[in-house]
Amino acid sequence: MTKGINILEKLQLFTEQWQPKVITEMNDYQLKIAKIKGEFEWHSHSETDEVFFVIEGKLIIHLRDDSIELNPMELYVVPKGVEHKPYAEEEAKIMLIEPRGTASTGDNVGKRAAQEDEWI
Amino acid sequence: MTKGINILEKLQLFTEQWQPKVITEMNDYQLKIAKIKGEFEWHSHSETDEVFFVIEGKLIIHLRDDSIELNPMELYVVPKGVEHKPYAEEEAKIMLIEPRGTASTGDNVGKRAAQEDEWI
Asked: Which residues contact residue A23 at a Cβ distance below 8 angstroms, ignoring those fewer than 6 apart?
């Protein structure tokens, strides 16, 4: 009997924020986990939708004309091309689903662009 | 402020087993939730990997040469082409991620093939 990938255990393996870690892949997509606190920069992904799934804490996804509140076990798909700015008042633990090679700052070349393909 | 998709609330909206319901899409992929109990049939998907993520309960994914045990907040990706048989002794609540149009019985034409694209 083999164990699956335990998201809570994986989250205990790192402390840094805004640095998504790949936990597995399916086809050309990656499932990533991240710890975030504070606000990210406005950005969009012109080529792909992006799934945000909250494990712990509360995540606000600001859109230009609305805001999405996500609590644990809640998810939201930011459509491709839609500008968004993630924000968490306290540290939130989240899972992201997006194509391999998707930069965290989207079409921007931002200072906070995470190094891609960091596995945990 | 808009709410996200709450997986636990969505799971309360139906009781039938082995009938995955689409809760959202990203690009050409669908996120589905399902309640399962007992064993499914052996099958494989020749064109795609498949993500199993357990919300509640315990899921066993039998492979021909191994078995994967998944508890809540654990996930496993069945690689494309790999024969598998999901099994749950008690009802388990799971989320699946797979391309739009993926039949639940894979390359088989099984009696238990779920009607595709049933949204909830």
From this structure: A5, A7, A10, A31, A32, A33, A95, A119, A120, B75
**Of residues B1, B29, B54, nearest to A67 (C-beta):** B1
Per the DSSP assignment, residues forming a β-bridge with B62 are B67, B85
Q: ipTM > 0.90?
A: yes
Which domain does B44 fall in, by range? 7-99
Q: Considering the domain boundaries, does residue A19 fall inside one?
A: no
Output the pLDDT for position A112.
Answer: 56
**What CATH number did the domain enclosing A78 receive?**
2.60.120.10
Answer yes or no: is A110 within a domain. Answer: no
- Interchain pair B4, A75: CB under 8 A: yes
Chain B residue numbers with beta carbons less than 8 Å from the beta carbon of A7 are 73-75
For residue B52, tell me if it sits in a domain: yes
The pLDDT, as a whole number, for residue B103 is 85
Task: Please give the residue of chain A at the shortest CA–CA distance from B27.
Answer: A49
- Which positions 100-119 of A are in contact with B (Cβ < 8 Å)? none
- A68/B2 CB distance under 8 A: yes
Query: Would residue A20 count as lying in a domain?
Result: no
